[in-house]
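Render this sequence as a predicted structure.
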Amino acid sequence: FFLRVEDTDVTRSKREYMESQLASLAWAGITYDLPLVIQSERINEHRAMAQKLLEQGRAYPCYCPPQKEDGDSDQGFYKYDGRCRSLTQAQQDLSKPFSIRFKIPDNQKAITFHDVIRGPITVEPDQLDDFIIVRSDGTPMYNFVVVLDDAFMRITQVIRGEEHISNTPKQILLYEACEYPMPQFAHLPMILGPDGTKLSKRNAATSVLEYKSAGYLPDALCNYLVRLGWSHGDQEIFTQQELISYFSLEQVGKKGAIFDPNKLAWMNSMYMRKRSAQDLLQIMQHDVGFNVQMELPKWSQESLLALIDLYKERVTTVGSLAKELKALHDGPAHYDEQALATSVTPATKSYLEQLVGVLEMTRDFKPDVLTTEIKNLAKQLDIKLVALAQPIRIALTGISASPGIFELLALLGKQESIMRLQKFIATL
């Protein structure tokens, strides 16, 4: 796997784009095997080959107006009328600005190539014209430079999106004209949004680094992306080595794959469960940018790691883990009305007042001791444990869903737990 920065289109190439992409690859653990190639640094080689094609009569100067010279226009296919194709050397004036067009051979037949994913693809010669390889300002065009750079980098497989299928016949002609070995071509299907339309920032992040800062794990994101349009039986979770071993282009589908944010979140949660609390803490601080010392000052490192282990199976991203821990650390500002309606009865206040008395007498504030004490109290009150447990949960967190209350009480500590219970009792 080699990496090349394609920056010959100056108006669309900015250093921050390149830096973002390099940072994304580094975060994902995707490393390239040769030094980085910057396309614009090879412009002398590109111009030399353009000059060679001119001398061989495989290309010619074109003096047509600039608005008609750009074969990469988004305005649809414009077929050049060949006005400058037959100019004699005497009619050419190289002192004037000119672009360089590739001359389609007069006897050109249909171009057929084998796409590794889609099979044979044929393009008739009337779908091609003498396309520009160098603009009139001297900058080379995409279709020209990628062929030269692929040959320079000894590329054997060109794998890219299906929107490039229309470029492939032009590039095949250039490979032949430059006498370069032909690579294999494979065109991947588009990734679509949940509604089946082209993926946009409405239904996915626009940068890989946005997933990093949201607390997605790189292995999870890579795993999910590989599974879009490719499968290996019913297996969902793959190690990187498994992906390398199992992947083949022949198993890639032809249809566009749906990007499902919920499926990505689920996959990320599976990867989070396998990571240690210390790993997740590092990600929380370095990737998500969550300042633990500032946001969670009341907790020791030991308590924080224990709470991460307690909460990591209840969230889907490290970002949401940070939010859950922050909410728990600060304590409830209000109590969920639905939770109050379903879990609080006229007797709840009395139950919790008696619980506070029990907790004040409990010396060893550990989960197993607290379990025994609270179960004994429920038995004495002749109530089900849930009639006590749910109000405790609401008092500690403000909501009706949380990790186990015995672990929470122990980790919050005796003083903090009793204070939250008393605050809740005061509202009843």
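Summary. The chain is about 45% helix and 10% strand. The two ends are 64 Å apart (CA to CA).
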